[in-house]
Amino acid sequence: MAENTVKIGKNLVDAEEYLAEGHNFCTGCAEALAIRLVCKAVGKNMIINMATGCDEVCTTPLPVTSWRVPWMHTLFENAAATMSGGEAGLKILMEKGKIPQRDIKCFAMGGDGATTDIGFQALSGALERGHDFVYVCWDNEAYMNTGIQRSSSTPYGSSTTTAPAGKVSIGQKTQKKNMVEIAAAHGIPYTATACPSYPFDLMNKVKKAADMKGPAYIHILAVCPTGWRTASNKSIEIGRLAVETGFFPLYEVEYGKYKMTVTPKKMKPVSEYLKPQGRFRHLTEEETEQIQMKVNANYARLQKMIECFPAA
Amino acid sequence: MSKRVALEASHAVAEAVKMSDVDVISAYPITPQTHIPERLAEMVANGELQANYIPVESEHSALSACLGSVAVGARSFTTTASQGLELMHEVVYCGASMRFPMVMVVCNRSLSAPISVWGDHSDVMSCRDTGWIQVFCENSQEAFDLTVWGYRVAEDLKVMIPVMVNLDGFTLSHVTEPMFLPEQSEVDKFLPVFNYPYALNPDKPMTHGGLGQPDIYTEAKVAQEIALRKSKSVIIQGWKEFGDIFGRHYSPVEQYRAEDAKTLLLTMGSYSETAKVMIDERRARGESVGLISLRLWRPFPYEEFRKAVSGAETLIVFDRSISFGMGGPVFSEAKSALYSEASRPKVVGIIGGLGGRDMAVKDFEYVLDRGKEIAEQGSDRMIEVVGVRGEMIKA
C-alpha cells in the first residue's frame, strides 16, 4: 500500500502524483487523467514503456520530464516488445542475483493506433509469450497526435481527417476493431475495459492486472476533446454516456470468465452519447438508428458471453 | 589455458555470448543466422547459459526487446541478417541514438529482390548511417573475439554505443574452422560485469527517449557524432588489452604484405582470406602487391586508412554491394577519405560476390589485373563487376 493515501468515499487512493503537474496535454484530456489514475493504482514500484504518441510528446519535451516513475519510449509500434525485454531483463537479473529481489510492475502503454494498428503484431507476440506485464491501450479512437486520422479503432460513422464525412461518405465506414476480445483470445489471465469517468473501477482493474502473474490487457476509452470536437469540460460526462448507452461497456475477462463491472440501471439511447460530439454531428436520424442497432447487438453478445462464461 | 577446438563461426559466436555472461537473448530466425540463436537456445535449455531467451515474433521486436532489457541493466544480445536487419532498421537507428550498449551479430546476406539467401554486404551497407560501431570478421576466431570485445567497448562509460559484428553469411557463418577457445577466467579478466548507470529503477526514476524539439535536437545529434568518433580510442585500447590477455592483435585497418606495395587491394570480411592467397602468389612472382582490409567500418578509421595507403600508387576497392545510382559504397567512402590528401593513390572500384556468387582466387586475380588496367587506361564501362554476363555493363 502507498505511504500517503487519501480516503475518497470508501476508497483509499495514493496521494502521490507520479505524472507531474505542468505537462502539455490539452485541456480536458481524459487520457492524461487515465494515466494519472493508472500510476496511482500501481504506485512507485513500476516501470513504463510508452509508444510514440500524445503521451510522450506531452510529457517529455527534453530536457524536462513529467515522470516520477522510471519511464522510457523508443518507437511507435514496439511498446509491448520493448517491455518484453524489460520484464525478461529484470527477471533474469533477479534470478542471477545481480539485482535485489523485488516486485516491480512492468507496464507497456500506447494509443489505439500504436495498439490496434501498427503495434498489433508486437503486442500479440508479447501476450502469446506470457511476459509478466500489463499493456494499457489509451483508446481515443483515432491518431490524435498527428491530427485526428482514422485508425482501426475509430467507430463507424465518425468523421476524421482521413475518413472525413462528405457528400457521398458517412466518414468511418468500418466497425471498431474489438481489441479486447482479440487480447482475450490469447488466453491471457486478465483483460478488461475501463474509462476514467469511473476512476475506482479503473484503478481496481489496474491493481488486479498488475498483481496477476502473466500478461494483462486493459483497454481504456479516453475522451479526446480536440479530436472528438467536444467541450473540454464535458470529458467525464461523455465518458459516462459511452458506458450508460452501452457504446463502451465496462467489463473484465479473468481466466476466460466474463463479468460486467458497471451495469447501467437503465440503458440510455446512443444518440445522447453521439449528439454532443462534433465528429458525429453529420449523422442522420436513420444513421444514428443503425448505430443504435449495432450497439444493441454488441451489448447482447457480451451479455451472452457473461451468461455462458460467468465469473464465480 | 586456451584450448584448440574446431567450431563453426556461428557456434563460436554462441560460445562468446555464453562466456560474456549475457543475460537476455532476443532473436528471430533468418537464414543464414539461425545456427547462432539455435545454439544459444540449446545452451539455455541445457542450463549451460543462465539467460532469458526471448523467442520474439519479428526482428523489429528482437532488437526492441534488447532496448528494453539493456534499459533495465541486462547484458543483451541479438543477431540477424538481410531482410531481418532491414525490418529492424528504425530500431537499429534508435538504439544507437539512445546510447544502449549491446552487441548484434549480423550474418551478412543479400537483399530482395530477387530473393536470395546467400551472402553479400547489401544488408550492412544500409546501416552505415545508423550510429553503431561496426566491425568485420574474417574467420571463426575473429567472430568469437570481436563478440567478446564488442561488449567491452560498447559498455565502456566513455562509449555507450552498440556494436555490430559482421560476419559473412554461409562463407563464414557455416564454416567450421580451428580456433582457440579461452578460459572463462581470461574472459572475465578482459570483460568486467555490466553495470549500466542509467537502469530503470523505481528508487531513482529516470526518463529515456523524450521529445527533442528544434532547440535541443541538433545538440543531441552532434553529441552522438562526437561520442562515436571518440569511441575509436576505446576501440583501439580494447584491442590492445585483448592482445595482452589473449595474444591475438587487431587493428582498425588490417594489412597483409602491404607496407611497400605499389598496388593495394581493399576488401572487407571473409573474402580477405581468399584474396591473401592471390597476394601470396603474385608476391612469389615478384609483383609489388598487398592487401588491406577494413576491420573497423564505423567510426571510419580515416587516419589509419590514409596511413595504410599512403605509399601505394593504386588502390583497388572490392565491394560486395551496390549503392544504386552511385556504385560501390566502400569505394565511394575510400575515395572520399583520400580526396583531401596531397598525395594519394589512384582509386579504382570493382564489385563482386553479389548474392553468394563465388569469389575464388582466380577471381581476385581478375580484380587485381582489371583494377591495374583501369588505373592505367580508364574504363569505358558504367560499372565494373566481376564475371557479370551480358552486354549490360557497356556505358
Structural class of chain B: alpha/beta
SSE order of chain A in H/E notation? EEHEHEHEHHEHEHEHHEEHH
Quaternary structure type: heterodimer
> What class, by secondary structure content of chain A?
alpha/beta
Work out the radius of gyration of chain B: 21 Å
- Kindly report how far apart the N and C termini of chain A lie: 27 Å
Query: How much beta of chain B, percentage-wise?
Result: 15-25%
CATH 4th-level superfamily of chain A: Thiamin diphosphate (ThDP)-binding fold, Pyr/PP domains
Which spans of chain A have pLDDT < 50 for at least 5 consecutive residues? none
Instruction: Tell me the count of domains of chain B.
Output: 2
How many helices of chain B in DSSP terms? Answer: 13
What is the fourth-level CATH superfamily of the largest domain in chain B?
Answer: Thiamin diphosphate (ThDP)-binding fold, Pyr/PP domains
Domains of chain A (count) = 1
Which CATH architecture of the largest domain in chain B is right? 3-Layer(aba) Sandwich
State the helicity of chain B in percent bands: 40-55%
Q: Can you give a write-up of this model?
A:
The complex is a heterodimer of chains A (312) and B (395). Helices cover 36% and strands 16% of the residues of chain A. Chain A has 312 residues and is an alpha/beta fold. Chain A has one domain (5-308): Thiamin diphosphate (ThDP)-binding fold, Pyr/PP domains (Rossmann fold, 3-Layer(aba) Sandwich). In chain A, strand 7, helix 7 (199-211) and strand 8 form a beta-alpha-beta unit. Chain A is globular. Chain B folds into two domains: 3-246, Thiamin diphosphate (ThDP)-binding fold, Pyr/PP domains (Rossmann fold), CATH 3.40.50; 253-377, Rossmann fold, CATH 3.40.50.920. In chain B, the strands form three sheets. Chain B has a seven-stranded mixed beta sheet with strand order 3-2-4-5-7-6-13, sandwiched between helices. Chain B has a five-stranded mixed beta sheet with strand order 10-12-11-14-15, sandwiched between helices. In chain B, helix 1 (9-19) packs across helix 2. The termini of chain B are far apart. The mean pLDDT of chain B is 97. The interface between A and B is large, with 48 and 46 residues. Strand 4 of chain A pairs parallel with strand 9 of chain B, so a sheet runs across the interface.
